[in-house]
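FAQ

Q: What does a record look like?
A: Structure on top, sequence underneath. For example:
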C-alpha cells in the first residue's frame, strides 16, 4: 500500500447486522489535509475509530505511515493526535493538570504544556477546574491535547464546534503549521464553507459508502456541476455565437468545467469580453449534490437501539497508551 500517511483499503464494518462501512478506500499523504464529510450516521466516526485502532475492521486494511494494522506496533512508531467530537476530560482536574497528564502519557515535556497553554489563550484559566470551562475553552484544550506530541497524523472530529470565528482561524492556522512539518490531517466536519479553503481533498460518504473523493477540482468534475459565467452584453454575444446559445440561461452561461477554457477563449478573443465573473461550485454545493434531496431521510435512519454505550474515547486511548508503554 505504499508509504502514505494514512492508507485505508476496502474497509468494511458491521455493528450486528447493520453495515456501517462498505468497502471504503482512500489515502492521505504526508502534509495533506482531507475533509471527511457525510450526513449524521454516514460512518465517519467509525472510520476514525478504525484508523485509531479502537475498532478492528471486519474486512480490509489500514496502514499508517507505511506500518501495518497491529495497534501496539503502530503506537510505538506513529504519533497520532486525536480530538474527539465531544471532548470529555476529568472535570475536577485543572486545564494544566489535564495537559500535563496527557504529556506524561505521550512522553512530552512540561515546558511544551506551558507553551501550548499560553498559545491557546488558556493561561488565565490554567489553574481552574475543567468544569468551569466553556465549550470553546474545552475545545481549545482538546485541540492542544491532540497536537501535544507533534503528531504524524492528526484526526479531528468537529474541531470548530463551539469556537468563535477568531479561535477557528487560529485552529486552522495551527493545522497549516503542522502540515508544513509533514503532518497528515483528517477533519470530520459539517462546517463546509469554513473548511473549504484549508483542505487538499475531501471524501464524501453516505450510508457507509464513499460517494466521492478528490481535490476540489476533481470533485467538481466528478459531480458534473456547472460553472456560471456572467458579463455585460452577454445576451448580444449569444445572439451572434451559436456555440454559446445552448449554454445561455438566466443571463449567464452555464458549462461543464472542461468547457471553461473554450468558453473564455471565445469571449475574450472573439468578442473582447475581458470583464466577467466566473463562479465554480464550492464544497457546499458539491456536498448537497451528492446528498441529494433525501438528506433528511439519512438523518432519520439512525437507529438508537443499536448504539452500544460510548465511553470516553480519550479514556480508552489513554489506557491503550498505558498498556503499550507497560508492555
Ligand atoms: N457502537 C455502536 N454500536 C452500534 N451501532 C453503532 C455503533 N457506533 C456507530 N453505530 C452506527 O453506525 C452508523 C455510523 O455511525 P458513526 O458514528 O460512524 O456516524 P457519523 O458519520 O460519525 O455520524 P455523526 O455525523 O452523527 O457523528 C450509525 O448508524 C450508528 O448508529
Amino acid at each position: 500500500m505504499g508509504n502514505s500517511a494514512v492508507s485505508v483499503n476496502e474497509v468494511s464494518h458491521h455493528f450486528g447486522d447493520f453495515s456501517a462501512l462498505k468497502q471504503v478506500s482512500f489515502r492521505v499523504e504526508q502534509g495533506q489535509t482531507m475533509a471527511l464529510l457525510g450526513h449524521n450516521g454516514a460512518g465517519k466516526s467509525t472510520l476514525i475509530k478504525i484508523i485509531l485502532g479502537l475498532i478492528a475492521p471486519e474486512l480490509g486494511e489500514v496502514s499508517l505511515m507505511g506500518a501495518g494494522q497491529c495497534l501496539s506496533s503502530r503506537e510505538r512508531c506513529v504519533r497520532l493526535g486525536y480530538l474527539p467530537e465531544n471532548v470529555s476530560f476529568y472535570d475536577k482536574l485543572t486545564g494544566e493538570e489535564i495537559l500535563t497528564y496527557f504529556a506524561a502519557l505521550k512522553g512530552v515535556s512540561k515546558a511544551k504544556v506551558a507553551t501550548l497553554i499560553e498559545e491557546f489563550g488558556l493561561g488565565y484559566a490554567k489553574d481552574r477546574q475543567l468544569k468551569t470551562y466553556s465549550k470553546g475553552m474545552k475545545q481549545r484544550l482538546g485541540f492542544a491535547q491532540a497536537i501535544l506530541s507533534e503528531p504524524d497524523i492528526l484526526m479531528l472530529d468537529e474541531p470548530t464546534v463551539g469556537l468563535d470565528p477568531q479561535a477557528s482561524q487560529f485552529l486552522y492556522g495551527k493545522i497549516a503549521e503542522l502540515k508544513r512539518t509533514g503532518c497528515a490531517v483528517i477533519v470530520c466536519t459539517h462546517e463546509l464553507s469554513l473548511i473549504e479553503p484549508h483542505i487538499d481533498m475531501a471524501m464524501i460518504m453516505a450510508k457507509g459508502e464513499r460517494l466521492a473523493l478528490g481535490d476540489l477540482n476533481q470533485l467538481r468534475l466528478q459531480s458534473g456541476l456547472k460553472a456560471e459565467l456572467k458579463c455585460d452584453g452577454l445576451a448580444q454575444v449569444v445572439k451572434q455565437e451559436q456555440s454559446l446559445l445552448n449554454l445561455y440561461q438566466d443571463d449567464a452561461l452555464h458549462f461543464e468545467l472542461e468547457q471553461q477554457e473554450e468558453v473564455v477563449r471565445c469571449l475574450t478573443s472573439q468578442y473582447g469580453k475581458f470583464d466577467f465573473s466566473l463562479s465554480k461550485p464550492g464544497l457546499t454545493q458539491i456536498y448537497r449534490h451528492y446528498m441529494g434531496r433525501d438528506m433528511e431521510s439519512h438523518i432519520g435512519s439512525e437507529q438508537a437501539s443499536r448504539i452500544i454505550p460510548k465511553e470516553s474515547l480519550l479514556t480508552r486511548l489513554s489506557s491503550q497508551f498505558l498498556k503499550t508503554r507497560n508492555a
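Q: Is there anything notable about this one?
A: The CA atoms of residues 44 and 98 lie 27 Å apart.
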